[in-house]
Write a structure and sequence with these properties.
flat, Ribonuclease, Rne/Rng family
Length: 38
């Protein structure tokens, strides 16, 4: 009954770049690239 295999990564992926955290922009770019398989 493992309905949530990885709640943490999913939440992180759904989290948009925080304007208060400029560093997150670069992190998000790398994440999107990784998710795209590039």
């Amino acid at each position: 009954a493992n309905a949530e295999p990885a709640p943490e990564p999913v939440a992180v992926v759904l989290t948009p770049p925080d304007p208060n955290r400029p560093k997150r922009a670069g992190w998000w770019s790398r994440t999107k690239a990784a998710l795209s398989g590039e």
